[in-house]
Amino acid sequence: MNVDKTESCNLKPFFSIIIPCYNAERYLEACLGSIYAQTCSSWEIVAVDDGSTDRTYDILMGNKSKHGERLKICRQKNSGQLLARINAVSQARGRYILYVDADDMLRSDALECLHEAATANPRAVICFKASRSDKFEKAFMPDFSEEGIVDISWLRQRLCSSNLYNSMCCKVFPASSVKVDIDFEKMRGHKNGEDAYQLTYILDQDMPVLLLDKTLYYYRANPESITSHLRPDWLESVRIVNINLRDHAECWGDSYVQLLDLRWLHNVYTAAKNIVRVNGFSAKAREELSEIRSDELFISAWAEAGADISSLNEKIILSLLHGGLFSLIMFCVVAFDRLLPGSSRD
Fold first, then answer.
1. Whole-prediction pTM value?
2. Which residues pair with 44 in a beta bridge?
3. Tens digits of residue pLDDT in 313-333
4. Could you tell me which of 27, 49, 48, 166 has the C-alpha nearest to residue 102?
5. Main-chain phi, psi angles of 62, to 5 degrees
6. 3-state helix/strand/coil string of the chain
């Protein structure tokens, strides 16, 4: 089934597909090609070259010569993915916003499936699934088995309790719900947590969520991507996101704040492990562990939710951190990694 196959690009497109690009020359053609191959043709692409130093801009311009006004290109100094996306959305004309990262791809019928779902549920945020296979086989995120309409509280709860629902990709948003008149400058230069920061403002709105149990997105395991690394400023970026999310969650209800305490403890646990893995048994590791131990958010979250931690590894590391037993933390991280390799993915 083809949808709007003959639609003129001069008409308002159904989808605006937002692609932030930073040094994306290796995979950008495949990403764009997956959109050109869609069985639904009511779309435009708004791509932002976020200060790339490779051939990204040349690739975009080469594609524009073939596809004309259906591909809009913005260029900016390197400002990060969030500000690139906001720049693109401010110039988008579509009724719905769909984010695709420059190293990922869409299944050929993705827009057709989403067009049908959005037409039947015009006010809804639509959540669908991603695969690590370009054959769009077994989904790995986000983790839901149900299908159909749920309340916005469903997505708020998961944002407050898990990183699995952070992504702006694997969702379709009514264009009116995506805010561009908010000061996002606080996130300039931060490379982690940008999705959750932006999503928080969308979830302030009272609208339904449609769960679509279809695997429509290929998430490429790119070792050079931002999400493949825990940067030195990772915890500070996540801290900004968590504080912002807490401000919103306090308006949503007390139960969300309680979930955020557990989320923050998990973030601290991840940071503690990363500190040891990067710095080993060193004075620098002790100094950085000491800093996060004295953080007020950690102290408060440990007091409120420490007893509710379900993971034994996490509870051990955080208990030692709270007690200032840094040498034991280092020993445990190394031991867990050697005896239980899966713990490195907690």
1. 0.88
2. 16
3. 999 999 999 999 999 999 999
4. 27
5. -65, -40
6. CCECCCCCCCCCCCEEEEEEECCCCCCHHHHHHHHHCCCECCEEEEEEEECCCCCHHHHHHHHHHHHHHHEEEEEECCCCHHHHHHHHHCCCCCCEEEECCCCCEECCCHHHHHHHHHHHCCCCEEEEEEECCCCCCCEEECCCCCCEEECHHHHHHHHHHCHHHCCCCCEEEEHHHCCCCCCCHHHCCCCCCHHHHHHHHHCCCCCCEEEEEEEEEECCCCCCCHHHCCCCCHHHHHHHHHHHHHHHHHHHCHHHHHHHHHHHHHHHHHHHHHHHHHHCCCHHHHHHHHHHHCCHHHHHHHHHHHHHCCCHHHHHHHHHHHCCCHHHHHHHHHHHHHHCHHHHHC
Distances 111 to 10, 43, 47, 166, 278 between C-alpha atoms, Å: 19, 9, 18, 21, 42
The residue assigned the tokens 């050109």 is 36
What are the tens digits of pLDDT across the range 238-268? 889 999 999 999 999 988 988 999 999 999 9
